[in-house]
């Protein structure tokens, strides 16, 4: 099976990454599986209690949560949905090939790092990270690290970035175009926030047979061509790469490694949620349009379902094989998305959605945040409240557990970045003068 260019996803870009205000409800069948968009047909469901431990006892306080219940839930997601993630490889090394170059008319300092995952520096097992820091910073800078669908050279308008590559026919080839917009890094720099980007395809190809070429191939057992029942899917592989980026950030004295936020959209929104859950070094998560198997409740029959995610013609490779048993048995899952959200407590988490992105169920994300709120309350922190589903553009819920929905569909809009900046400044206690 051949790996196509990673810009061509299984979903149709024209349908999912548009910004018009029309309802993006899509077909009634996907992969032969019915899709419901009628609130009256959602049905009833009962969510597992995140504050009830496996022995039946209730969590009594934040210390009990952190010491006892939280590890239980992490193991559940490892075993049942994402798979276990290996640790830091002993032979990993960093090549800082751009040690600090003025960028954006001198407003920023650009650094570029190639992270070699294995001792073999000739192989494709490496990842480029570009970092921009405010040139006028007098102390280590807070940072937003974005996991991107496109190589760095296509995400940011800066000719000084090393040209990126994408996968084609099982090997990396030069990247020449992107189906996604560029990020205005200067707006972050102007607010005293650094910005970094890595390309998810550097870590693992987004394809059914990507395990043959990506980082998971290094960890396969001898003779295996696919992961075992509890092993990791592609989401965990991309998450693993984010942790390796943090390994570098902790070594850079110009970066405040205690104030690093991560952001990703769609399947990469799922990835940053899982990363924040399993790697507490990340101080904040901004999960955009993460939808089914991300922040949206799976038990809520609306839009995409676990059945769609695990269908062998679609995204089954993104998850641990064990997750597939729940394709038509979601009510038997020992977890749901509210428990994944709860794992971020007490760190700030912003769920960003789109009002017409029905496939990803923005209301399901909001209800999940409400169900996770009791865990944040253990720490005396504020969540989204108990009110009705908000209107698009309502920015009153940028709390520690926050929610923001733009008017539009399945994408990150330019104006969403202004909300991200406000959220970062508020919860990283940056000077807002």
Automatic annotation (TrEMBL):
This is Acetylxylan esterase. Pfam families: GCE_fung. Residues 230-380 form the 4-O-methyl-glucuronoyl methylesterase-like domain. Keywords: Hydrolase, Serine esterase, Signal. It comes from the Bacteria. Residues 1-23 form the signal peptide. The keyword Hydrolase applies.
């Amino acid at each position: 099976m051949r790996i196509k260019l990673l810009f061509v996803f299984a979903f149709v870009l024209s349908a999912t990454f548009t910004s018009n205000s029309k309802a993006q409800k899509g077909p009634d069948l996907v992969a032969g599986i019915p899709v419901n968009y009628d609130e009256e047909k959602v049905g009833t469901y009962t969510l597992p209690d995140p504050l009830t431990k496996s022995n039946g006892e209730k969590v009594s306080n934040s210390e009990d949560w952190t010491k006892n219940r939280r590890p239980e839930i992490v193991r559940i997601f490892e075993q049942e949905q994402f798979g276990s993630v290996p640790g830091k490889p002993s032979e990993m090394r960093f090549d800082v090939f751009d040690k600090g170059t003025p960028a954006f008319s001198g407003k920023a300092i650009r650094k570029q790092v190639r992270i070699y995952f294995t001792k073999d520096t000739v192989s494709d097992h490496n990842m480029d990270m570009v970092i921009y820091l405010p040139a006028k910073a007098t102390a280590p800078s807070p940072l937003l690290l974005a996991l991107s669908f496109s190589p760095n050279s296509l995400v940011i308008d800066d000719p000084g970035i090393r040209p990126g590559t994408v996968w084609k026919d099982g090997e990396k080839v030069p990247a020449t175009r992107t189906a996604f917009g560029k990020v205005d890094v200067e707006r972050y720099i102007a607010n005293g926030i650094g910005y970094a980007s890595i390309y998810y395809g550097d870590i693992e190809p987004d394809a059914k047979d990507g395990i043959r070429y990506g980082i998971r191939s290094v960890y396969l057992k001898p003779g295996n061509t696919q992961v075992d029942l509890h092993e990791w899917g592609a989401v965990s592989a991309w998450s693993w790469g984010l942790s390796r980026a943090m390994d570098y950030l902790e070594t850079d004295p110009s970066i405040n490694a205690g104030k690093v936020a991560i952001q990703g959209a769609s399947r990469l929104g799922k990835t940053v949620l899982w990363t924040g859950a399993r790697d507490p070094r990340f101080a904040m998560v901004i999960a955009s349009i993460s939808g089914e198997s991300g922040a949206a409740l799976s038990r809520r029959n609306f839009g995409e379902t676990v059945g769609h995610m695990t269908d062998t013609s679609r995204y089954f490779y993104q998850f641990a094989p064990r997750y597939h048993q729940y394709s038509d048995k979601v009510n038997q899952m020992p977890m749901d998305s509210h428990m994944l959200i709860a794992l971020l407590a007490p760190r700030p988490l912003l769920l960003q959605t789109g009002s017409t992105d029905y496939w990803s169920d923005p209301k399901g994300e909001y209800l999940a945040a409400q169900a996770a709120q009791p865990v944040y309350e253990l720490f005396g922190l504020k969540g989204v409240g108990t009110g009705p589903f908000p209107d698009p553009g309502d920015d009153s819920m940028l709390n520690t557990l926050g929610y923001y929905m733009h008017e539009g569909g399945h994408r990150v809009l330019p104006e969403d970045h202004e909300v991200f900046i406000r959220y970062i400044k508020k919860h990283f206690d940056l000077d807002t003068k």
